[in-house]
Amino acid sequence: xxxxxxxxxxxxxxxxxxxxxxxxxxxxxxxxxxxxxxxxxxxxxxxxxxxxxxxxxxxxxxxxxxxxxxxxxxxxxxxxxxxxxxxxxxxxxxxxxxxxxxxxxxxxxxxxxxxxxxxxxxxxxxxxxxxxxxxxxxxxxxxxxxxxxxxxxxxxxxxxxxxxxxxxxxxxxxxxxxxxxxxxxxxxxxxxxxxxxxxxxxxxxxxxxxxxxxxxxxxxxxxxxxxxxxxxxxxxxxxxxxxxxxxxxxxxxxxxxxxxxxxxxxxxxxxxxxxxxxxxxxxxxxxxxxxxxxxxxxxxxxxx
Length: 304
Fold this sequence. Notes:
- The relative contact order is 0.14.
- This protein has helices at residues 8-12, 225-229; strands at 5-6, 22-26, 29-40, 45-49, 59-71, 77-90, 97-106, 112-118, 126-127, 133-134, 139-148, 151-157, 164-174, 180-190, 195-204, 211-212, 232-237, 240-245, 252-258, 263-268, 273-277, 283-291, 294-303.
- Strand 13 and strand 14 (180-190) form a beta hairpin.
- By secondary structure, it is mainly β.
- Strands 2, 3, 7, 8, 10, 13, 14 and 15 form an eight-stranded antiparallel sheet that branches. Strands 1-4-5-6-11-12 form a six-stranded antiparallel sheet.
């Protein structure tokens, strides 16, 4: 049986390996169902995902665990600390990246550090170049740090904290021909950030084309966007976005994003008239209509 786990040392030096997988091809999306799921529930246990099943890991995951003890001014033993963290990162090349955001922390003397946080995407969220992607190898899906005197959590966070069931990482990676592909990895964070499950993943075969989180349906090109746009009328009133559509389809979705690319809300165009209340700061937003993961119409709107 092929192995999908490896050592912490291998993770740190970007070793390669081969996954257990049961892959099927539907249209131009390659879907892989891990059987069984990849469970990381032991301290410093590491696993990897090979998106295109070519024998080389593209993304790596670490169930991180660390302990340390303070030293008192007299040289004695002080408080004890421990940290759990579910790490994810691009593997093997900086071109393999995960959609997310980062935060910089300044320190005295001009030094500082950056934390990287992968997004937690919902089903049908569009994964394309409009998302912000990060290549750092250690990105915090979920984490928490304890101190024992008195016992309490003094630091925690990540979009996946404390538990999330079957949400998605948005990823992009390069193949052996240096062609860029977008994909998703379905994960669950469990036991209050003390464990991670990787369920399945997929990617779009056609380079530089988007994919919806959870989708196994391929990219569909729309040749006549002008004709398509005539089917829709989008406007705002009293902090609501209204979509009037001549088309109704289970494959037609809307998403509203801010100018930083963050998704505010997403849903189906399942009736000819939709009213979407927006609970967000005043400003300019993009309303995007997508057919099978492809943006077919986009309009800027203003929320007062």
